[in-house]
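Course assignment 3, question 2. Fill in each field.
Student: A.L.
Task: Predict the tertiary structure for the chain below.
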Amino acid sequence: MKAEMAQVEQLMLQITGDEKHDGAARSPLDVLWVLYDRVLRYDPRHPRDEERDRFILSKGHGPIGLYTILALKGFFETSELATFAQWESRLGGHPDRNQVPGIEASTGSLGHGLPMAIGMALGLRLKKSERHVFVLMGDGECNEGSVWEAALLAGHQRLSNLTGIVINNRSSTPDLGDIAGKFAAFGWHATTINGRDHEQIYAALTHPVEEHPTLIVAEITA
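Answer field:
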């Protein structure tokens, strides 16, 4: 696992062009790796296969880590990473679902990912699909009112096929306090973990609760 993460980080070091959002790209890296390496069901040769799980990067202003992992998992060639944020590259500063294989939603405007994930989860439930929807947000993003409106709806709908992950690197102003407790009050099964510990991440991602959406607060301290 350490060797694989080192490969991810080495590839990321070769990508230039978005230093402003470097922290946003690196803080969720361990969660993203565990998701794509051990949890998500997908086929990189058929990225729109109906039998896939869905993942939305709601904090879409930091897609470099996701691009790197998608390339390593075979969605496109790793050599394409060097084109990030260049003219005519499909790897833009915000992910585009119409351009990049494996991207489920075009994001970047904060607060939109969770509502879209709820729509996907409801659609899958109507189809009686066993597939799951995951959405990754940031603690700063949770200042958006749309996040809490969506959180209330997901709890009300008992969307057990939905898992939200909040990367908490204390970037929010004002401080949101007990994020897990707030989601729990809205009907979610919520837990807080070490966002760098792969076994904690895996355990939290693979234990959904019946009749409740799941919320994981991944604490990032370094």
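Instructor remarks: The chain has one domain: 2-219. The beta strands are 54-57, 133-138, 162-168, 189-194, 214-219.
Grade: pending
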